[in-house]
Amino acid sequence: MTDGPEQASWLAPAERSWLADRIVGEKPTHLPHDEPRFLELLLDSRVWLLAALFTLVAAGISALGYYLPELIRWRSPSLDKFQIGLFAAIPSLGTMIGMVAIAAHSDRSGERRWHVAGSVLLAAAGWAASAWLPAPLPSLLCLALAQMGMMSALGPFWSSATSYLSFSSTLCPAKSSQVLCRQDGLPILAENMVPRHIGYALVLLR
Fold this sequence. Notes:
Elements: H1 13-26, H2 38-42, H3 45-75, H4 81-88, H5 90-109, H6 113-132, H7 136-164, H8 173-182, H9 186-205
């Protein structure tokens, strides 16, 4: 195992040089004395903006994951459980294509912000349209667009978070936003409480 690309004998000289320059270019530019402390991170509005955005996306993903079969059964009560399972797989098939396509385009262009915004707007439009369309199939296709948008936003989201909020510290704002979303607080809201209360509302409205 070599210590760096300069010592990789299986690479051509041009490849070793390109890889070494790429690694140097990706190193953090912040000096150690610029590293923020935890309190400074909590006061950084960008951290809370990222946390809020991720929480909303996570709430939508979890709600659809919990209640997609119920939503299908609600619109098509004549379907049996096996048929509901088949229809519930449709959004995931579209999501696989959308995630790869959007992530690949984001990587090729180097643009992150509008890929996240466009994906989230697509998800919002899908949710809204599925609520207003009474026909089962168009409503399901709109839910598929919603899932595609929510899941496709995750890749560019974390890439953008670590690009413009990166520090050489192990506790950077991008990771802090993930801590806020994933540790002991917001996940209960985003991934459990919100879908659970949506379920209560569905029961009351039936």
